[in-house]
Amino acid sequence: MPKKISLFNFTPDQIYQKFIQKNLPDVYIGSLYKIHCHTVFLLASTKALDKVLSSFTVYEPKVLVSNTYGNATKLLLELEDKNKIEMNIMHFKYGVTLCISSQVGCNMGCKFCASGVLKKVRNLTSEEMMTQVTLANKILIRTQERITNVVIMGIGEPFDNYANLVKFIKIITYRYGISLGFKHITISTCGICNKILAFAKLFPSVNLTISLHATNDKVRNEIMPINRKWSVKQIMNTIKKYCSLTNNRITIAYLLLNKINDSSSQAQELASMLRNINCMVNLLKYNNIKEGKRLSASTNSAAFKKVLLDNNILFTERTSTGTKINAACGQLRAKHGEK
Known about the structure:
Layout: E1 5-6, H1 12-21, H2 29-36, H3 47-55, E2 56-57, E3 62-69, E4 72-78, E5 84-92, E6 95-99, E7 103-104, E8 122-123, H4 126-140, E9 149-152, H5 162-172, E10 185-189, H6 193-202, E11 207-211, H7 217-223, H8 232-246, E12 250-256, H9 264-274, E13 279-285, H10 301-310, E14 315-317
Parallel strand pairs: 1-2, 6-9, 9-10, 10-11, 11-12, 12-13, 13-14
Antiparallel strand pairs: 3-4, 4-5, 5-6, 7-8
């Protein structure tokens, strides 16, 4: 029996070449993607279409745990090699957002993030990233919903898995597949500057969030070890170049930590740094993790916000989603690491 081709480990252009090699009618490329992406409920079968479908396969991870609380559903998934990742489906008034993982574990070591407790085992393939989306769509079929937004903010640093990230974006935005708009995708990074600029040139319309969390190297070194490679100054220079390249508003994530980065003077420093930059500050509330023993939520958030407001810095406050099921930002973790 001929070996089946793994659909989501190839870009649409590469799949087109596979069609040519296997003498398959390329008119069915769209049908192939729509079926495997669970974006159609019924499609008439033909011999030619059946031949196409029998030539390709999509791996689906095993759901080990599914917990729902409020508008969030957190799933623990097992991959073919028994490694585990997590994803989070969140329902909002404007649609359904899926938060996906990009790696098994993470090497960035941010002190406030549960994801980094488990060191990086390996990168996820584009297929393993994509099947989180198709699995979510399969779950949502019963309510005739589908994923409308994807945020790559789960386990892992997306730009530390750059090649597979690029392939994933090409697949998920393919017009005959899920066809998700670039503006409906958000990448969150701790600040790998060279990859940020390379990505901006490829996908200028994809949303970007940079986890800054400090206004100087001393504090950022303490809570984000990656800062020893990419300093605050380098990140700020990259942000300016990014805005110039894309004309997009960039989101600056800032986690307020009690007596670490939440003083009024630090708020003023942040406002000065961001003046004349097209950005939105996303203020985050710290979610307790058992490993973050020296960290606690800010008690000075009102004063911090006032400084930003007085300096005409746009900001929003992210609502924690799914804290009861450890699905909020900074709490995604593979359960086998807790045992």
